[in-house]
Amino acid sequence: MHLPRRTALGLLAAFPAAAQTRPWPSRALRCIVPSAPGGYEVYARILAPRLSELLGQPVVVDNKPGANGTIGMQELQRSPPDGYTFMFAHVGAISIGTSIYPNMPLDPVENLASIAVAVTSPLVWLANPSTPFRSLPDMVARVQAEPGTWRYALPASGSIPHLVMEDFKRRHRLDLPAVPYRSTPQSLTAVVAGEVPIVLDSLGASSGHVAAGRLRALAVTSRDRAERLPDVPTVLETGLDEREWDAWYAFMAPKGTPPEAIQRLNGVINQALQEAPIVARFRDLGASPRITTPAETLEFIRAEKADFGAIARAGRIRVE
User: Do residues 47 and 118 lie in contact, with contact meaning Cβ atoms separated by under 8 Å?
Assistant: First the structure.
């Protein structure tokens, strides 16, 4: 049986409209993580299964490392703003890169859409246990007395440990050269192996090494002592810094993503972050869930961009 031509054309014309009115999401979602496996992507992989359940569609984590997050962020920027592609990235990629890279191809704060700041983790000053450093003041005094003798492992150029360390060096007049590595796991492994004596990195990434005695924690950068390291003082307690520093990780989307999709993603992310099993897993990693609205996220990442920009200018920090 053949439909009249007019009827057939009418049905064909109706298909796009029907597709447009299907409830979102109606297929799998992709979460880009602009880093190599084995780092902070663990937070995205903890959240992804629960987000899949809450959204009723698979959420697939897709690692796109390179250029301190720029490659993954550019891929996100090129993606259709339809709510099916979003990103989980770190502070260095979102709020630091534009201040230190002379040819940064995009400004994530202004050229992407904010969803949620989901995770925070204090930084920890760490040393190989064979070093003479028993505290952060010990380390500062020794490095000042022996300029150029000691080195620190740099997890990634443009990362928050990079900016915080260089700011600390400038303020305390430390001649402490950097040994760059490609990732946090590589830099931590180098300090554990004794290749480099010192590193500053997130508690979430380093807590396992500290618990096993492979690294010695000298101080944490949070305002309060970390639950995982109750006997380790804060840098504020030592008097060597005047503010706290936290590594943080946020969800972003392509600019122009429908507000309804942004709000839905924000809602399910915040719901998952308040559920006991996920909170417990984050706490075990030395991290804390953070609940934010899209508007609060944008305000926060803009403020962080301004703060890190000031540090980069004061220290003349540029990465070619």
Answer: yes
The burial of 258, by beta-carbon neighbours within 10 Å (0-12 exposed, 13-18 middle, 19 or more buried), is given as: middle
| Number of neighbouring beta carbons within 10 Å of residue 13 | 9
Single-letter amino acid, residue 71: I
- Is 80 in a helix, a strand, or coil? coil
pTM above 0.90, yes or no: no
Residue-level pLDDT, tens digit, the chain, 320 residues: 444 544 444 444 444 444 456 789 999 999 999 988 877 889 999 999 999 999 999 999 999 988 778 899 999 999 999 999 999 999 999 999 999 988 889 999 999 999 999 999 999 999 999 999 999 999 999 999 999 999 999 988 888 999 999 999 999 999 999 999 988 889 999 999 999 999 999 898 888 899 999 999 999 999 999 988 999 999 999 999 988 999 999 999 999 999 999 999 999 999 999 999 999 999 988 889 999 999 999 999 999 999 999 999 998 998 87
3-state secondary structure of 154: strand
- Torsion of the alpha carbons at 277, 233, 247 and 243, rounded to the nearest 10: 130
Do residues 125 and 136 lie in contact, with contact meaning Cβ atoms separated by under 8 Å? yes
Residues 57, 46: contact at Cβ < 8 Å?
Answer: no
Q: Is 59 within 8 Å of 51 (Cβ atoms)?
A: yes
Burial class from Cβ neighbours inside 10 Å (0-12, 13-18, 19+) for residue 178 reads: middle
- What is the rounded CA–CA span in Å between residue 121 and residue 318? 25
Query: What is the C-alpha separation between 197 and 215, in angstroms, rounded?
Result: 10
Contact 140, 284 (CB under 8 A): no
**Residue 170, SS3?**
helix
Q: Which helix (H) or strand (E) holds 42?
A: helix 41-55
How far apart (Å, rounded) are the C-alpha atoms in residues 59 and 283? 23
